Amino acid sequence: FRGENSNYTTEYKEGKWHCSCHFFSNWGVCSHTMALERMLSNMLPKEALTTQHTAL
């Protein structure tokens, strides 16, 4: 993701979402992973939409 503040690596790997942003490392979820879940919802496995988020 390229945002106004910085660039972040966001991915869905081995059944879990990951993002390199500071917010995700503290909370295990962020606007970047939520945006990708929404944008890719029709292409992702159902588990990707309800999977636990983990920090990178």
From TrEMBL:
Molecular function GO labels: zinc ion binding
Protein name, UniProt field: SWIM-type domain-containing protein
Occurrences of domain SWIM-type (ranges): 8-41
